[in-house]
Amino acid sequence: MSGIVGSYFNTRGSGVVAKLGSDGQVFTSTGAGLSQGFEAAAGGGKVLQAVTATDNTERSSTTASWITADNTLSVNITPSATSSKVLVMTTFNSGNVSGADTRYTINRDATNIGDATYGIVTTTHSDANLMYATAAMTVLDEPSSTSALTYQVYVYAGGGTAYINKYPTLGTITVMEIGA
Q1: Domain holding 99: CATH number?
Q2: End-to-end Cα spacing for the chain
Q3: Of the N and C termini of the chain, which has fewer Cβ atoms inside 10 Å?
Q4: Are residues 22 and 56 both part of a single domain?
């Protein structure tokens, strides 16, 4: 007889009969010419939840400190375990004018999770003409929390005007809870 019989397993044509693994285990190879094995299913790395928000309002700032630019590109998530990580991804059309040193970062609540000085994305140019480009940021955060968290794009305008969603395009921010 071949195939699965009760709690035993016959490898077709091999004459080998082996006990099936227990609940939660997966069937694995133990190597060429060796009997099969059963192991615990791999843990972690699974997306437990995903939340996204969009914004297509053009926003600007002339402030030479980290600000939210009128609460643009913000999303809330509540991790299910303190061991979870949160993957944050955002894209938007950035811009600066008047020789601005423009920086963008992502904050978790009041904490800058990029570089405190330079952020995650920095755009600089030296003339008075408008420069704009698509900005993209990705950060893997380890908040160690099961409380509601707010992830948000922040901007720093060093000596000019900084823009988010210049020439209104659809900016997005997506956060994913990744199981440990």
Answers
A1: 2.60.120.760
A2: 42
A3: N
A4: no
Domain that holds residue 113: 47-178
**C-beta atoms surrounding 8 within 10 Å:** 10
Number of domains the chain is built from: 2
Scanning the structure block, which residue is given the tokens 């490898």? 11
Query: pLDDT of 132-170, one tens digit each?
Result: 888 899 999 999 999 999 999 999 888 788 888 887 788
Q: Does 15 share its domain with 79? A: no
Are residues 30 and 112 both part of a single domain?
no
Residue of 88, 87, 79, 86 lying closest to 145 (CA atoms): 79
Residue 61 token pair: 């700032």
Tokens 């509601």 locate to 148
Together in a domain, 15 and 96: no
Residue 94 backbone dihedrals phi, psi, to 5 degrees:
-100, 165
The residues, ordered by sequence, that sit 6+ positions from 117 with a Cβ below 8 Å of its Cβ are none
Please state, in angstroms and rounded to a whole number, the distance separating the CA atoms of residues 148 and 78.
4
Number of H helices, E strands in the chain: 0, 16
